[in-house]
Structures are given as C-alpha cells and as structure tokens.
Amino acid sequence: MQNALFVGVSSQVALARELDVIANNMANVSTTGFKARNARFEEYLMPTASADSFMGADRRVSYVIDSGTPLDLSQGPVEPDGNPMHVAVKGDAFLSVKTPSGDRFTRNGAFELDARGTLVTSDGYAVQGDNGPITVSQQETGLSIAPDGTVSTNLGVRGKIRLVTFKNAQVLKSEGANLFSSTQAPQAAGIDGRLEPGTLERSNVKPVVEMTRLMDVNRTYSMISSVISRLDDLRGTAIRRLADVA
Hints:
- This protein has helices at residues 2-27, 207-245, and strands at residues 40-46, 61-68, 78-80, 87-91, 94-99, 102-106, 112-113, 119-120, 126-129, 132-133, 144-145, 150-153, 156-160, 163-165, 173-176, 179-181, 187-188, 193-197, 199-201.
- It is an alpha+beta fold.
- It has 2 domains: 2-73 and 207-245, no CATH class; 78-201, no CATH class.
- It is found in: Bacterial flagellum basal body.
C-alpha cells in the first residue's frame, strides 16, 4: 500500500512539472519567435519493494520520472507587417545577439535602431553580424535587410546578420526573454537558414493543443489525488481494525 502511495506521488510531481511547461507555453503564445517546449517522462523501476514482506522474490515498483522538456523547433506562422527592419528566420537557424552575459541566441527578428544607431532586438540586445554589432549613422536612410542577412543603407552595405545552427539544438537552454544559451559551439547556418524581410515569425504554440493538454493534466491529477486519498483511508481503517484485534 505504501508503494502505491509513492507511485501516485511520483505521478503527481511529474504532472505538476508538465503543468509548469504548459503554463509557460500559454504565457508566450504571442511572443515573437517563441519555441514551445513539451514535457517528457519515463518509467523508473525500483529494484526492490521495501514494504513487500510476502514470500518469494521482491517485486519491482514502477515510478514516473521527468526525462526532460525538449524544444518544439517547428516553424511558427510567418506574418508580413511591412517593417523593413523586421525579419522572420526561416529554417533551423537562430540569430546571435550580444547580452551582458555574453552571446545568446533567439528567433526574435523584431529589430530596431537604438539611440546609437545599433541594430538591436525589441529587448534591446545588439544583433551580431559577421564582424560584430551592426551600426548605422543618423545621416543614413533606406535601411534594408536582404534574405541572406546583408544590411544596407543609401551609403552601401553596413554588415551581414549572423545566422547560426547547432549540431543538436535540443541542448539549448532557455534563459528567459526569449533567449537561449548553449555549451555547444554554434556553426554558420549556410543553406540551413535565411531571413524573410518585412515579416515576423510568431510563436509556434498551438493554444487549442495546449488547452487540451491542460485539461488532461488537471483531470489526471485529480484522479490520482482521489486514489491516494482512498488508499490513505484504507490504511487508516486497517490500522484501527488491527488495534481493535490487539
């Protein structure tokens, strides 16, 4: 009976983790370039059942453990908005940006110019070019971004936006503010990524799917709570009856 309670609790812990993932996805349904995460779980077999005092071989107990939250790297909807400084990343590439903590990676292509004329994201992080941040002067006009990332003005080419890929993008760690970090060295995207100027990639979160998952998690969590409550009542009844016999 004790093992059954532990199995139920392990399931509830896993479901609580999945609920956090769903809540984060729903909170970013309108975030430009956001990539959803999914919850993954696996079975953990306890080699012995310590509370099993019956004759014969010990029985293995099956628990639930969290095996990770992989990224959903599918392309989000691309919507035109007519802004020449906005770009959608197509393919498996990421934009490289400079932050106080070092280089980070994002799919947020909502660019603008800051007070110093540096091309930055909507969160104020400098967009990295092949030769560092890209800057234009106040006298320049007609800024445009080509599909290969080349940034030009009326005075010519000002740089080329750096697009990178990773051998295994699942190693990317979410850092908040729609940024990722990686211990794996990025590689030049090449043909694996390009930009679509005048558009933005929206979040790839599917609200209907997430709401369905939310209802399933709540229903399952409530069901397990009911089972645990009944097992606890059963244990209490057993203890009282054994005490009466004694």
